[in-house]
Amino acid sequence: MLFEEIAKANIQALKDHDKQARSILSVVYGKLKLESIAQGLGANTLSDGDCLRIISKTMKELDEELAGYTKANRPEKVEEILLQKNVLTKFLPEMMSDADIRREIEKLEDKKIPNVMKHFKVNFNGQCDMSTVSKIAKEYQGV
């Protein structure tokens, strides 16, 4: 499971004295533990979908930080954030392309936005950007 992979990577980063990897992996691991507790699950028993959701959210937070540091002309911090994003990217699956999303929507009988969004959230959680799914689903509303 993804939860255990992140825990192992966190420990390995600690052993390797990799400060950048350790800092971001510790943050993500902490968020995963908190989510596991919030859901009332036992230790280290979070689904891969939930793990991907948390990692994706953390990536978006890093993107916001990156934009801020770029605007503030802080190249050392920009490099640090890019390294952290690179560490997290290894845990994310390949994202679905727009063409893949369109093919999946075309397979559905009911192309109404709530049904499309539910289908993607259940079956492709963490594998596609939900805002892109929403945008593409809106194209099918006239069909």
Describe the overall structure.
Helix 1 (2-15) runs antiparallel to helix 2, helix 3 (48-71) runs antiparallel to helix 4 and helix 5 (98-107) crosses helix 7 (130-139). The protein is mainly alpha-helical and 143 residues long. The chain has helices at 2-15, 19-38, 48-71, 75-89, 98-107, 113-123, 130-139. 73% of the residues lie in helices and 0% in strands. The chain has seven helices and no strands. The radius of gyration is 18 Å and the shape is globular.
Question: What's the short story on this structure?
Answer:
Helix 5 packs across helix 7.
Question: Which labels suit this protein?
Answer:
globular, 143 residues, mainly alpha
Strand and helix map with partners:
Layout lengths: L1 H14 L3 H20 L9 H24 L3 H15 L8 H10 L5 H11 L6 H10 L4
Roughly how many Å apart are the termini? 40 Å
What's the overall average pLDDT, rounded? 87
Q: Could you spell the SSE succession in H and E letters? A: HHHHHHH
What is the gyration radius calculated from CA atoms?
18 Å
Count of individual helical segments: 7
For the biggest sheet, the summary is: none
Instruction: Give the helix/strand class.
Output: mainly alpha
Gross geometry: globular
- Percent of sequence in beta strands: under 5%
Runs with pLDDT <50, length 5+?
none
